[in-house]
Write a structure and sequence with these properties.
six-stranded mixed β-sheet, Rossmann fold, His_PPase_superfam, signal, Phosphoglycerate mutase, alpha/beta
């Protein structure tokens, strides 16, 4: 009897953590349909690794860690889900890294622009504060119409939100920089 009660209690605890995640995601989707918000996302899944190979160049994708085939499919699925859920992109900005540009373009939400403050500062902590403040200002100044879509790197998202996102994960924010919710990239 005690073992059954313990299992039931464990299931209840697990479910109590699952419900807020669904509510959080539902609030995020509703905010995107409303417009005037910010979608901050980590690029889609890449080939295995951390950072980029020594000597990589921004003007040569063959020297960088790039999207995997699954990541390319993931980016397309993310874009399709955003369109199907009524999100209208007002502006789409991305890091100059090929994995971010490719994610933004494969989502097929509109014209994509490189915005230097979204560039990775992994291993370059001297740039972190300046870039993060530039993105915070951009977010604070967003008035729409539509959603401001920002495609960047884990370190950038974490610096702005204290969230460590998975590949393709989106954090939906208001122009005051408050997180409304998160959307996983696992739509399948």
């Amino acid at each position: 009897m005690l073992e059954s009660l313990s299992r039931l209690l464990l299931i209840a605890v697990i479910l109590s953590f699952a419900v807020p995640a669904r509510a959080d995601e539902a609030a995020a989707w509703a905010a995107l349909r409303e417009g005037g918000k910010i979608l901050l996302m980590r690029h889609a899944t890449t080939n295995p690794g951390v950072g980029d190979p020594p000597g990589f160049r921004l003007d040569d994708c063959s020297t960088q860690r790039v999207l995997s085939g699954a990541g390319r499919d993931q980016a397309k699925s993310i874009g399709a889900a955003l369109r199907q859920n009524g999100m209208k992109a007002g502006r789409i900005l991305t890091s100059a890294w090929c994995r971010c540009v490719d994610t933004a373009e494969l989502m097929d939400l509109g014209p994509v622009e490189v915005f230097e403050p979204l560039n990775s500062f992994f291993g370059q902590s001297a740039e972190a504060e300046r870039q993060t403040e530039s993105v915070r200002k951009l977010i604070a100044d967003w008035k729409g119409p539509g959603t401001l879509v920002l495609v960047t790197h884990q370190v950038n998202v974490t610096a702005l939100t204290d969230i460590f996102p998975s590949s393709g994960e989106m954090v939906i924010m208001d122009p005051n920089g408050r997180s409304i919710g998160r959307i996983s990239a696992n739509f399948r």
